[in-house]
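Why does residue order matter? Because the sequence determines the fold. Keep that principle in mind as you read this record.
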Amino acid sequence: MRAVIQRVANADVVVEGKLIANIGPGLLVLLGIENADGEEDIEWLAKKIANLRIFNDESGVMNRSLLETAGDIIVVSQFTLHAATKKGNRPSYIKAAKPDIAIPIYEEFVEQLEKLLGKKVGTGVFGADMKVSLLNDGPVTIVIDTKKKE
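Structure:
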């Protein structure tokens, strides 16, 4: 799994003119799922995101997690995060999982985050043409890949 995690002042997702998800301060996570992803990736990434210390404490130091700040979160599936661009100018998405594999993993990931955070997680609509808006706070943007665990 590959995630682009953005600390936001606010974010929303619109599909076909309808507001699907809307949050104030928290995280917007763009999530790419590949064929090799499984339960271990889901658990590791959900815990990492919930506990990632990228929110400011009283001293202005990034020392608090989403759990500690009670911030909100939206998770949007994005297969293009697994684009291979090594050859030519047209990206290949061969590593990105097809919907029959990706949807259950995506749903389980969202459920795992909801358990860890004790609150509802906003989502997009899998496979839809989404309009995602955000006001990046910081800006703070972090990329995590469960296969590299860096």
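The mean pLDDT is 95.
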